[in-house]
Amino acid sequence: QDGTPYTTTVFLQPIAAPSILGLFGFSGATLIVAAHMAGWYGGSKTDLYVFPFAAFFSGLAQFMAGMWSYRARDGLATAMHGMWGAFWLAYGILQLLLATHVLATGGTLDHALGFWFIALAAITFSGMLGALLEGNGGVVAVLGTLAAGSAVAAIAFLTSPNVGTEHWAGWILVVSAALAWYTA
């Protein structure tokens, strides 16, 4: 302590907007899974084709976008991309376990997914309110339709078999995927 004042040097490192990757990743996997939920395609082997796309194209990419959003000091993007990226990673792993018959389909699985979607709907709705306060209309539209689709999916899975409600959830989520693509 010789009386010399301490100095701090700050280095700013600009990065690209992480939400572009996050929204494109979200859009792709949501479109694939929501189209299946809407009844547009699918069969006994669908899980085999869904899991790598959901886990990596959306899950890993969106989770990384969430962490880069943290670095960019965007709290809302950190929360939404981080949470949805983690969901897509878990969903991809779940589809792999179903495709390899480690887990069985049916009532317990549907109810578990119903509760997954309750949590997703509530947190996503909170994120939509945050985007509304920020005045970001594109993100409000994406998160609003995503929260609504998640809520309808929760109802569908908790009251399964409820194919009609699952189809509605799929359609709402397809709209959310399209809005995410446009917003990105």
Q: What is this structure, in a nutshell?
A:
The chain is an all-alpha fold. Helices cover 77% and strands 0% of the residues.
Report on this model:
The chain has 184 residues and is mainly α. 77% of the residues lie in helices and 0% in strands. It has six helices and no strands. The longest helix has 28 residues. The model has no long low-confidence stretch (mean pLDDT 91).
Structural class designation: mainly alpha
- Poorly predicted regions are none
How many angstroms separate the termini?
52 Å
Number of strands: 0
Q: Biggest β-sheet, characterized? A: none
Please bin the fraction of helical residues.
Answer: over 70%
Mean pLDDT: 91
Morphology call: elongated
Residues in β-strands, percent:
under 5%
Q: Any idea what the radius of gyration is?
A: 19 Å
Q: What is the H-and-E element order?
A: HHHHHH
Number of helices: 6
Secondary-structure map with pairings?
Elements: H1 18-37, H2 46-71, H3 75-99, H4 107-134, H5 137-158, H6 163-183
Helix pairs in contact: 1-2, 1-3, 1-6, 2-3, 3-4, 4-5, 5-6
